[in-house]
Amino acid sequence: MTLTELPTDVRPREKLLAQGAGALSDTELLVLLLRTGMAGKGVFMLAQELVDTFGGIAGLLHASADDLGRVKGLGGPAKRSQLVAVLELARRAMAQQLREREVFESPDAVKRYLQLYLAHRPHEVFAVMFLDTQHRLIVMEELFRGTLDQTSVYPREVVLHALRHEARAVVLAHNHPSGLVQPSGADQTLTKHLVAALALVDIRVLDHIIVAPGLAFSMAEHGLM
């Protein structure tokens, strides 16, 4: 069924204008972005396939243009670039919020931000949020990939990046592709090494957050710092 064949009151655009964006499902919001489907696959079917293929909107937020191109109906550059642009805007909007206020005024926003960037990666990624004197975000950088322990994450490199950004505090972060967010013994040992190394240059480690799809674990909140 095409959009024009639907009753007016259930068309996504009219529904959004009448009831607000919150009234629309994830699929309906994607329908508004996609606008059209293809022969044999209507726009609603295409939107639902995207949600199913990438495990919901959170997974879709991590999809690259190449990932999207593997979905039949998104082979052309126009729709893919439009989706990628919208998803990048979402990431930048969250980063802007964290640059404008002290990050732990809203700890849930920090966790959502880290989930958005790291939770759906197929391999472990270690990242650092570098913060200014007021604990506002300067920049987040991915520094290491692969199995994370004190031998694969180099404290010297973290310190050098912190000094380069003139950071006064940091939030450490990494993902667990296993889907479990409980810190391992190696995670806790690594955190202690980094806290000690950064303390030598008077930079505080405020937290180490571990994320997985739909989950986040704050080591500071659980008294593990």
CATH class membership of the largest domain: Alpha Beta
Helix content: 40-55%
Terminal CA distance reads 55 Å
User: CATH H level of the largest domain: which superfamily?
Assistant: Cytidine Deaminase, domain 2
The CATH architecture classification of the largest domain is: 3-Layer(aba) Sandwich
Strand order of the largest sheet: 2-1-3-4-5
Number of DSSP E strands: 5
| SSE ordering | HHHHHHHEEHEHEE
Q: Stretches where pLDDT falls below 50 for ≥5 residues?
A: none
Measured on Cα atoms, how large is the radius of gyration?
20 Å
- How is the main sheet built? 5 strands, mixed
Shape summary: elongated
Strand content: 15-25%
Describe what this molecule looks like in 3D.
- The chain has about 220 residues and is an alpha+beta fold.
- The protein folds into 2 domains: about 5-95, DNA polymerase, domain 1 (Orthogonal Bundle); about 105-220, Cytidine Deaminase, domain 2 (3-Layer(aba) Sandwich).
- The protein contains 9 helices and 5 strands, in the order H-H-H-H-H-H-H-E-E-H-E-H-E-E.
- It has helices at about 10-20, 25-35, 45-55, 55-60, 65-70, 75-100, 105-120, 155-165, 185-200, and strands spanning about 125-130, 135-145, 170-175, 205-210, 215-220.
- It is elongated.
- The N and C termini lie far apart (about 55 Å).
Q: Could you provide a short overview of the structure?
A:
The chain is of the alpha+beta class. It has helices at 12-19, 26-34, 43-53, 57-60, 65-69, 77-100, 107-118, 155-164, 185-199, and strands at residues 125-131, 137-145, 169-175, 204-212, 215-218.
